[in-house]
Amino acid sequence: MSSNRRAVRVLSIPANHPYTQAIRPAGVAYLPDPDIDGNWWPHPAFTAQYWRELDPADYPDILHVHFGFEHYTPDEIRDMVAALPVPLVVTVHDLDNPHLEDQREHHERLQVLVDAAAATLTLTECAAEVLRADYGVEEPIVVKHPRIAEAPVRAERGARAAVFVKSLRGNVVADPAFYRDIAAEVPVDVHAHDVPATAELRAGLAETANLRLIVHEPYGDEALFAAVASAGACVLPYTRGTHSGWLEMCRDHGTPVAVPDCGCYASQADTPEAVAEYPAGDGRAAGRAAQELLARGGVPYVGDREAQLHEVVAAHAAIYENLAGGAR
User: Fold this and answer.
1) Cis peptide leading into 60, omega within 30 of 0?
2) CATH code, domain carrying 285
3) Whether residues 30 and 83 fall in one domain
4) Distance CA 113, CA 120 (A)
5) What is the average pLDDT score of the chain?
6) Does residue 303 belong to any structural domain of this protein?
7) Which of 9, 47, 255, 274 pairs with 222 at a CA distance of 20 to 30 A?
């Protein structure tokens, strides 16, 4: 970008998220997230009123939507795009929203956004195919998910699978039978936050043969990366969703991943050898998938993460510069 022109100003929703910070090009100014009781959501820029009341002198050059639009109705999103005075970029992380059981309104909101978008991005060819076939997006742009860990942790890889349920987000299997069924097929460590949301699951897993329950406070990066790097395989215990930053983190450390057959998880991996797919919600099948991966051993990431990151950042820089060129 030319040094004698001001930086492209992007209202990224959100802005201060690890993914959006990772893909942010140099010389692009992200407007700050709002502080709404300590959160950035529900972001007011998803309302028509926000744009109608905003001084034109304060318009960003581009609105780039990543997440957070589930807080508004499809009609509110329609009103917003009708009032939007700047180009819209949409990155489709979630064809299905992991937080929602009923996806109908999510799909409707997503359709409104991609119909209005000057550019639609997504993370896998699998998701791009859905956007073309189901949403009429003629030319979705595929940009890979960048690395989570800048350097892989060197750890002795164990002979046990691992599942990280954290605080049981909405798309994580909560039924203890799923994890007991995994343990019937393969030795497994289940990592769970020490919070009320996991209490019933933890009680249901007590004294399960072949299963080690690890109850913990949220891990910092160092402890988390060490746990992932030492696992023989990780199981993603998801019932819905599309893409996974957790999968990328596992692959940063060469850990193979058992993935459910929903969404685009399997297609997200750097190499087919790094994943084994199982029917979502089927613990026995998940255990067998993990056992298959354990038998293969660790699978180093295939490709160059540094070069990939440069490509992802460059793709965003080109899109921003193209759309904002006439506004500066």
Assistant:
1) no
2) 3.40.50.2000
3) yes
4) 9
5) 96
6) no
7) 274
